[in-house]
Amino acid sequence: MSEIATVDEHEEVLALRRKVDELETQLEWFRKQVFGQKSEHAKPMDVNQLSLFAQQVEQAQAALSAAEQETHVKAYTRKKNKKSNEKLGREVETIEKTIDITDEQRKCAPGWKLVSIGRREMRTSATYVPAKVVKIIYYVRTYKKVRIDGEGDPEFLQAKLPNAVIPRSVATSSILAKVIHDKYELDVPLYRQLQDWKRIGLMVSETTLSNWMIDSAELLAPIYDRMHQCLIRQKFLQGDETPTQVLKENGRKATDKSYMWVARTVRKNATPMVYFKYDPHRSQSVAQELYANFSGVLQCDGYAGYNGLSIERVACMAHVR
Predict the structure, then answer these.
(1) Which of 76, 66, 57, 54 is CA-nearest to residue 12?
(2) Quick one: pLDDT at residue 319?
(3) Which residues touch 74 (CB under 8 Å, ≥6 apart)?
(4) 3-class DSSP state of 271
(5) What is the DSSP string of 166-222?
(6) Is residue 59 within 8 Å of 24, Cβ to Cβ?
(7) Where residue 183 falls among pLDDT bands split at 50, 70, 90?
(8) What is the pLDDT of residue 52?
(9) Most C-beta atoms within 10 A of its C-beta, which of 7, 54, 286, 307?
(10) CA distances from 27 to 32, 50, 57, 59 (A)
(11) Pair 155, 144: CB distance under 8 Å
């Protein structure tokens, strides 16, 4: 019975503590509303006026003090939250490792034998495989056809070497994809990538990386144009133009404002895509070129540059506000 009474007293003390905390929080909030800094001024409060919750707080604090003096509260620790936010994507390569017993444990006494009854999954871990550069040297096989009787001239055959992504360059598609990803998705400038490449064995200059970006853009141009063709066939698009700055652009200062025009489908589209078009200007002609042959609905802001489009436009909820 004494153990049950102790538990009840413990719960009563906890309830009183919660009540005191709640009342003190309310009291502090009302104090800030009257005396704190804010944009909307409240009616000045009479300094002689008593607090609305002062009496309740004093009564709760007195009851808590009396309960703590008469009751021995058993200390306890909160249980650790075992729920983890660590997750691994489905596309991550999986390697299974089975830990076996030792050779000493395998030994059996006379009349006994060891029989495997399966394995249990115990833990999942993640490991990082550092990036590396691998040198690939291509050789081609050469053959010659000769007549069995030895008559006639032989015919020579040689395997066809696959074309390089960029002629006279060691760069492969994987190297170029990594540079593009770091520069445009992670915002890592080319000059900051040099040391990373050097550490894993590829010595290049910033000029070389810049040329790789130019060559990659030319290689991807057909895909870029095809994306635009698919985009304007959609029934609903979202568009905007974002200010940006370009260094060392012919005839313009580095501080001059340029624009990155963006057109995109909705996320739930069967073939979602985002299309970027750079232009130094924000003129109406850019919008007309970007949305040429588009006959669907365009969701955009109220910028006058879209007024020249003969299509239906709708505003987003942020601009409606």
Answers:
(1) 66
(2) 64
(3) 6, 10
(4) coil
(5) STT----HHHHHHHHIIIIIS---HHHHHHHHHHTT----HHHHHHHHHHHHHHHHH
(6) no
(7) very high
(8) 55
(9) 286
(10) 9, 12, 9, 14
(11) yes
Helix (H, G, I), strand (E, B) or coil at 269: coil
Contacts of 28-34 with C-beta under 8 Å, sequence gap 24+, read: none
* H/E segment holding residue 66: helix 54-70
Percentage of the chain exceeding pLDDT 70: 81
Rounded to an integer, what is the distance from CA 268 to the centroid of its chain? Answer: 19
Q: How far apart are alpha carbons 155 and 147 in whole angstroms? A: 9
Rounded-to-integer distance, Cα 207 and Cα 213, Å = 10
Q: Is 290's pLDDT higher than 90? A: yes
The pTM of this model reads 0.62
Contact between residue 306 and residue 313 where contact means Cβ atoms under 8 Å apart:
yes
- How far apart, in whole angstroms, are the C-alpha atoms of residue 58 and residue 63? 9
Angle between helix 190-199 and helix 206-231 axes, rounded to 10 deg: 110
CA-wise closest residue to 297 among 257, 254, 265, 258:
265
Say if CB 272 and CB 290 are below 8 A apart.
no
Distance (Å, rounded) from C-alpha 272 to C-alpha 263? 11
Rounded to whole angstroms, what are the CA distances from 56 to 25, 47, 66, 136, 167? Answer: 12, 19, 16, 80, 83
Q: How far apart are CA 98 and CA 109, in angstroms?
A: 25
pLDDT of residue 42: 45
Instruction: Kindly compute the dihedral angle of the four CA atoms of residues 59, 63, 66, 69, in this order, to the nearest 10 degrees.
Output: -120
Cβ–Cβ < 8 Å for 192, 179: no
Amino acid letter, 47? V
Give yes or no for a contact between 240 and 300, defined as CB atoms under 8 angstroms apart: yes
- When comparing pLDDT for 50 and 289, which is higher? 289
Tokens, residue 236: 């609903």
pLDDT score of 67: 62
Decide which of 264 and 145 is more confident.
Answer: 264
Give the model's pLDDT for residue 145. Answer: 87
Query: For 274, which DSSP code?
Result: E
